[in-house]
Amino acid sequence: MISLNIEKTLGFISREKVFAYEPLVKEAQNALEKGTGKGNDFLGWLHLPSSITQEHLEDIKATAQVLRENCEVVIVAGIGGSYLGARAVIEALSNSFTWLQDKKSAPSIIYAGHNIGEDYLYELTHFLQDKKFGVINISKSGTTTETALAFRILKKQCEDQRGKEMAQKVIVAITDASKGAARVTADKEGYKSFIIPDNVGGRFSVLTPVGLLPIAVAGFNIDKLVAGAREAEKACGADVPFAENPAAIYAATRNELYKSGKKIEILVNFNPKLHYVSEWWKQLYGESEGKENKGIFPAAVDFSTDLHSMGQWIQEGERTIFETVISVEKTNHTVLVPSDEANLDGLNFLAGKRVDEVNKMAELGTQLAHVDGGVPNMRLCIADLSEQTIGELLYFFEVACGISGYLLGVNPFNQPGVEAYKKNMFALLNKPGYEEESKAIQSRL
Ligand SMILES: O=P(O)(O)OC[C@H]1O[C@H](O)[C@H](O)[C@@H](O)[C@@H]1O
Question: EC top class, in one word (predicted)?
Answer without folding.
Answer: isomerase
